[in-house]
Amino acid sequence: MTLNLTANLTLNLRDADVLRHHQKWSGAFLACERFSQYRFCWLRDSSFMAYSLDLADLRTHSRAFHLWVAQTLAPLKEHFETLLQRKNAGEQIPYTDMLPTRFGENGEWEQDGWPNFQLDGYGQWLWALSEHLRLSGETDLPEVYRDSVQMVVSYLQHFWEMGCSDCWEEFHDHVHTATLASIYGGLNSISRFPSVAVNPEVPAQIKARILTEHVKNGRLVKSNHLDGVDASLLWVSTPFKVLDENDPIMQATVQEIENTLVRDGGVIRYDGDSYYGAGAWLLLTDWLGWYFAEAGDPEKAQKFFQWSENQRTREGHLPEQVAVSSTDPAKLQEWNDLWGSSANPLLWSHAMHAVLLNRLKI
C-alpha cells in the first residue's frame, strides 16, 4: 500500500474530526455514545485519543482532556490517603474501594458494579500527559497538574503489585503484564519533569518483575496466571519501552501474536476470547502495525493499517471489532441479543488508526 500526501492529510483530518466532534465540553471523551455500555470516559482509551490529537497538532483538545483528568482526580485525594492508611495497617482492601478508571462525562465516580479497578489507565495517563507536555515544549509540569499527578504517582508506587482487572475488564485478581508495562511507562516518562517525585527503584522493580515472572519459553505471557499471549503485550515495547521492539523477548512475543491472534488480517484480543464471538479489533490491528513501524518494518505496518482502513463505514467511522472466519457465531449472537451490535464508532479505534498513520510518515 502506498498513500500520497493528499490521502494522508485527508485520513488525518477524518479521524481527528471524529475525535473532536465527540469530545465533550468538559474535555472528556466518551468511548462510544451510540453503545449503551460505553457512555463513559476511561483513562486508558482517552489517553491515547489525546495522544493522537497531540500528534495532529491539535493540542487545545488534548490539553482539555488532561485538565479534565486533573480536575476529576483532585477530589479523590482524601480517598487515596485513606487507602494508603488502610494498606499500611495491613488491611485487605476490596477492589470496589480502589480508585476508579472509568468516569462519567463530568467526572462522576460511577459505582455501579462495573469492573473499575484497573491500574493501567493511571500509568497511561501519566505517559500521555508527559507526551503532551513534551510535544508542547514544556520543561516542567505545570502547576495545574501537580497535585493530581503526584497523587497518581504515589498510588501506582504503592499499589503496582496488586492484582486488578486487565485492560479488557477481565481476570480481576491477576497481575497483568500489559498493566505492569503501563505503570512502568507512566512513571518513567513523568519522571523527566523536575517537580515530580518518582522513586526510581519502582520502575526498575517493575521491569525486573516482568523479566523474571512474566517471561516463559523466551516470550512474554498475559499475566502471572496465564501463559498465553494477549495483543496488549505489544505495550511492553510500544509505546512504554520496558523492552525495545527488537529485543529477542519482544520479537518472540510478537511472533506468537502473529501466529495465534492474527485472523483474516486483523488481530483478536487473545485466544479463547468470547466477547462478541472474538472478532478482530481495529485498534489492536493498528497497534501491531505501530509495533512494526517502530521496529523498522513499514511494509508490515502498512498492511495492518490498510486492513483497518478497509473496515471504515460509509459514515467514515471505525468500529471496535469485526467478525472474522474464526468468530463464534453463537457467542456473537449472544452479545448482540444482550447489548446490540458492538461499538461503532469506537473512538479508541480512530485514535490508534491516527497514531499508526503518523508513525508511517507516508
Automatic annotation (TrEMBL):
Pfam families: Glyco_hydro_15. Residues 19-287 form the GH15-like domain. Transmembrane segments: none annotated. Gene3D superfamilies: 1.50.10.10. This is GH15-like domain-containing protein.
